[in-house]
Design brief:
Layout: H1 3-21, E1 39-43, H2 47-59, H3 64-77, E2 98-103, E3 109-115, H4 121-131, E4 136-138, H5 139-148, H6 159-171, E5 186-191, E6 197-203, E7 224-227, E8 231-237, H7 239-245, H8 247-256, H9 261-275, E9 283-289, E10 294-300, E11 304-309, E12 312-317, E13 319-322
Helix pairs in contact: 2-3, 3-4, 8-9
The protein binds aspartic acid.
Length: 323
Amino acid sequence: MSSRRKFIKNTTLTTAAVSLTGLGAKAFGLPKQKETSPLVISTWDHGLAANVAAWKIIEGGGKAIDAVEAGVRVPEADPESTSVGYGGLPDRDGNVTLDACIMDETGNCGSVSVLRHIKHPVSVARKVMDETPHVILSGAGALQFALSKGFKKENLLTLKARTAWEAWKKEARYEPVINIENHDTIGMLAIDQKGDISGACTTSGLAFKMQGRVGDSPIIGAGLFCDNEVGGAVATGLGEAVLKTLGTFLVVELMRNGAKPQEACEEAVNRIIRKQVYEDFQIGYLAIDKAGNHGSYCIHKGFNYALMKNGSNQLIDSSYHME
Ligand code: ASP
């Protein structure tokens, strides 16, 4: 029996066990869960530098929510990173439009989509979370809000990105299918010294997308989801496929029902594979549980992630469905 089928078969049993050791723990006087050691985990190799910035905050006793914001700001500011923040590849009309979201240990969250001219969309998303009654601000409204909060209006289209766009325009073939090599959203999850979990996700989205296109990355439950009782998950790859399955919400719910982070990521990828023509696009999921276990799975070989734990920061190749 495949491990996935075994997992589905065992889910009911495990659910009962989980509710006993989780919510029921106090009522039955079970021993408290062993303390989790803090960690930071993030997608792709730009996660290595991002983890270092996040880890500084965790190490100093700071909160996971501050750590993930500080962490993903690193690739947002890096002009060499052509899929996040400043230097991101533009839409088909030459506008750099950014999507980002953030979620804390209480379930609060904030998000911006189609945000132009602001280098750090994750920090605008944080302000949406902290300083408005809303979850998502989009487009002109998101920009107006950012400016009102003192963010600086900047030109985000670097020479490198403009040159790539000019080259793309020569043929201007509109293929809203993500190239297997061409996607690098940063999604980050952290557990702080208190054991609290938060996450953030930020991207310039699909290169040369239609103007106004919103991917999975600013949508809570698609690009990012955290539940402090269970764990968290982030996604990268073709946002449309993640949106159709609410991928990270699915991963966290599977963990809530007893799946390990690895099993949950595999099942979320399998959900896409069963329903969509998946050969030409990439999806990668990364998840942690409350105990600090992690897992990841992707469609095509090539997705990797950075894990910072116990003072070591390493890049790890994800397991995958196909070469
Ligand atoms: N998920 C992102 C999007 O569809 C792309 C990526 O991961 O790079 O906008």
